[in-house]
Structures are given as C-alpha cells and as structure tokens.
Amino acid sequence: VKYANENNIVMVVRGADTGVTASQLPVLGNELIIDMHLMNNILDLDEKTLTLTVQPGVILDNIQEFVESKGYFYPPDPGTKLSSIGGNVSTNAGGMRAVKYGTTRDYVKSLDIVLPNGDFMTVGSLNIKNSSGYDLKNLFIGSEGTLGIITEIKLKILPLPKYNKSLILAFN
Predict the structure, then answer these.
(1) Using CA atoms, how far apart are residues 28 and 26, in angstroms rounded to an integer?
(2) CA atoms of 92 and 127, how far apart (whole Å)
(3) Chain segment 2-15, per-residue pLDDT in tens
(4) How many CB atoms lie within 10 A of CB 161?
(5) DSSP structure string for 111-162
(6) Cα-flanking dihedrals φ and ψ of residue 105, to 5°?
(7) Which residue(s) pair with 7 in the sheet?
(8) Distant-in-sequence, close-in-space partners of 138: CB < 8 Å, separation ≥ 6
C-alpha cells in the first residue's frame, strides 16, 4: 500500500466479487488489485462479550453457519450469502432482516484498517459505550473501501432466537 501510494498506483480491493456496481473491477488497466479472499479465517468467538473476530474475506454464509452452530445469531442478511464480510462492511449491507435487526453497521464493534499511506489503525471499541472522540468506525463502514483496507473485523452477535416463523399474508 505504501509503495502504491508513493508511486501513484490506483488500488482496487477485491473480496468475493458479488458487488453489482463493478467497483471491484479495474478500468484503467494498470491498477493494483488487492485480493482479500484468502483472508478468510474466523479468528475468535468470545462468548462473554458476544464478539466474533473475523478476517474480511470470510463469506457471510460461513459466519452465519458458524455462529448458529454455537447457539448464536448474526442478523445482517443481504441478498447473496456468498458475499464477504469485508464487502458487507464496506457497503453497510442490510438485507431482508434489516427492518427488524438493522444493517451491518449495527453489528460492527471494531475494525483494523490499513490506511492509504500504509499506516495501520484500529477504529471502534469492544466497549458498549464509546464516546471518545470522532466516530471513525462508522465513517469507514459504507465507505466502499475508499478510506482504507479492512484487515480484521470484530462483530457483535446475538443469542439465537428461540423461535423463527415466516408468514405470507394476502390483502385485497
């Protein structure tokens, strides 16, 4: 990243390639593609703080299956389950459950980020209330990767709901 910045090389960060805006595609022909799909590990589940630590290339379906097998629930549920969690954070993905549970932003506790100049920073906190300075975490969420490259994500998870029912109602 430092080299690309110093040499004015455009970087394109790519995850699972499920985006519909084609923002992960090179358009000039000389971009540096940073492919995150091999950073696909679930690193830790802290059941005391209900925190799941993952790398950005983990596929959403894998996160949901993993936490559900442990009795927990990760609510954001965008249209494709094959998207990467880094892409979900970068776009603040929502999905069908967003009306009840919120979007990805509501479940990100902290992010580790490489800035465009190559410096590293952590934004957010594991604390329930964190009012120390600017809310940089929420600035990065939904920024489409324009402010930095996410390298680690700490997610809030919930206890698995006891019941799950779907209804279809027809009206005149």
Answers:
(1) 6
(2) 21
(3) 999 888 888 888 87
(4) 9
(5) EEEE-TTS-EEEEE-SSS---SS--HHHHHTTSTTSS-EEEEEEEE-EEPPS
(6) -50, -35
(7) none
(8) 105
Alpha-carbon Rg for the chain in angstroms: 17
pLDDT tens for 22-35 read 566 667 777 888 88
Whether the CB-CB separation of 19 and 125 falls below 8 Å is answered with no
The reported pLDDT for the residue numbered 23 is 60
Query: Is 0.70 topped by the overall pTM?
Result: yes
Across the strands, what pairs with 140?
Answer: none
In this structure, how many other beta carbons lie within 10 angstroms of the beta carbon of residue 59? 20
Please count the helices (runs of H) and the strands (runs of E) in the chain.
Answer: 5, 9
Quote the CA–CA distance of 58 and 66 in Å, as a whole number. Answer: 11
Tell me how far apart the alpha carbons of residues 2 and 44 are, in angstroms, rounded to a whole number. Answer: 29
Distance between CA atoms of residues 24 and 145, nearest Å: 10
Q: How many residues does the chain have?
A: 172
Which DSSP state fits 15? Answer: S
- Neighbouring CB atoms inside 10 A of 142's CB total 14
Report the distance separating Cα 72 and Cα 151, nearest Å: 24
Which DSSP helix (H) or strand (E) runs through 44?
strand 42-46
